[in-house]
Amino acid sequence: MGTTRSKLRDWSVYRVGLTGGIASGKSTVADRFAALGVPVIDTDVLARDVVAPGTPGLAAVIAAFGPDVLLPDGTLDRRRLRELAFATAGRRQQLEAILHPRIRSRMEALCASAGGPYQLLVIPLLIESGLETRVDRVLVVDCSESVQRARLTVRDGESAVSADRVLAAQVDRATRLSRADDVLVNDGSRDELQGLISALHANYLRFAVDRAAGRAAGLKQDGVRDME
Predict the structure, then answer these.
(1) What are the domain boundaries of the chain?
(2) How buried is residue 61: exposed, middle or buried, by Cβ count under 10 Å (0-12/13-18/19+)?
(3) What is the mean pLDDT of residues 154-181?
């Protein structure tokens, strides 16, 4: 599995991109990695930061979608915005054009300062946004679409129509799995999930050491060439 990613990596710390369909359990998995001491950069959190009150991002959203996307306290009504943005592909792309560059800029700044043995980048739209070129490895959290729908309707209060619309806007499950280096099936017990995460953590620590060694060797070789 997996896909060929850019060989030009201008970041020093090994990056694992965590993705998965909506309501697949990405946050639960990310929390488990964080408990192991892994720096976690969550683009869902960054997506909120870039449209906080007073930000250029929020001003751009209001200009594109109107003042109805604001709650009485001046914060973004995310559910209303989602309804508007997912109404058509064109509107969704309009929102992505506002948010994605801002999220990526913030993500790279946080990665540069986060350190760690390796970093976990939680990017729900990793495949759709093309950000898989900004990670060393892709981890997909997977569950069935029926489980996703149940979580969306019960947990998030989405209607069946709204849940289907959100699922349809994401890359299909088969495509997502075909781009994965690792797949974490999130349909078992908490203990089973923790065991799987611990095994992945051990692998990623090893991969990070190997990449660091290869990077150091490459830099050393480049230095020799420069002196010739």
Answers:
(1) 12-39+118-228, 46-114
(2) buried
(3) 79
Contacts of 37 (CB under 8 A, 6+ apart): 116, 117
Angle, CA of 59, 26 and 139, to the nearest 5°: 110
Pairwise CA distance, residues 25 & 144, whole Å: 11
**Which residues have CB under 8 Å from 32's CB, separation 6+?**
193, 194, 197
Residue 141 CB neighbour total at 10 angstroms: 24
Q: Rounded to 10 degrees, what is the CA torsion of 114, 186, 79, 85?
A: 80
Look at the block and give the residue holding tokens 């390796």: 118
CA dist 128 and 177 (Å) reads 13
Tokens standing for 31?
A: 């929390």
Collapsing DSSP states into helix, strand and coil, what is residue 15? Answer: strand
CATH number of 12-39+118-228: 3.40.50.300
Q: Over the range 110-136, which residues count as b (16 or more CB within 10 Å of their CB) and which as e?
A: bbeeeeebbbbbbbbbbbbbebbebbb
Query: Among the residues of the chain, which ranges form H helices?
Result: 26-35, 43-49, 56-65, 78-85, 89-114, 126-129, 145-154, 160-169, 173-178, 190-227
Which two three-digit tokens encode residue 112? 């540069």
103-152 pLDDT per residue, tens: 999 999 999 999 999 999 999 989 988 899 999 999 999 987 777 777 77
Predicted TM-score (pTM) of this structure: 0.82
What the block records as the tokens of 55 is 């930000």
